[in-house]
Design brief:
Blueprint: E1 4-9, H1 13-16, H2 26-35, E2 40-46, H3 50-67, E3 73-76, H4 86-93, E4 98-102, H5 109-118, E5 122-125, H6 133-146, E6 150-151
Helix pairs in contact: 5-6
């Protein structure tokens, strides 16, 4: 099986358990997938601040230690500055095959998911897909046109 890169956009509670002693659901699910044999090259996790990226890196390191599963988790932005467009920079770095998991505030689902699809990534979005039907239909049309998988 060909190895893939995964881009996770968001670094909050769902992704890594930010603000809790837990680890969220998305990062642990990726670790479990690797444990079960998935061939993942790298997981690129994108926050909007270096502080959040560092917290995510700590959580990933703890998961590696607790699970014994080795996953190459890279976090962005790499500086301490706030960067709301960090995910766009990462999308331009990642070469296929790749997919994206979008776990950002609901009002950003359309914008972020659209960038992922336009970059040629199969895209999973935490619920809801989008706040409006028009935005959801737009994403569906882009995915269909580019022959990409998109789901909630």
């Amino acid at each position: 099986m060909k190895s893939i890169d995964i881009v996770i956009i968001g670094a909050g509670l769902y992704v890594c358990g930010k603000g809790t002693p837990g680890y969220g659901t998305i990062l642990p699910a990726v670790f479990e997938w690797v444990r079960q044999g998935a061939n993942i090259n790298s997981v690129h996790c994108v926050a909007t601040s270096g502080k959040s990226a560092k917290q995510l890196s700590r959580k990933a390191s703890e998961l590696i230690e607790k699970t014994g599963v080795t996953v190459d988790v890279r976090s962005y932005p790499e500086t301490d500055e706030y960067d709301s467009a960090a995910y766009q920079k990462v999308l331009s770095l990642v070469e296929g095959p790749a997919c994206a998991i979008v776990a950002v505030p609901d009002h950003l689902h359309h914008e972020v998911s659209k960038h992922c699809l336009e970059a040629g990534l199969h895209t999973l979005v935490v619920k809801p897909l989008t706040p409006t039907l028009a935005e959801g239909l737009d994403l569906r049309n882009i995915a269909k046109e580019k022959q990409l998988y998109g789901a909630v």
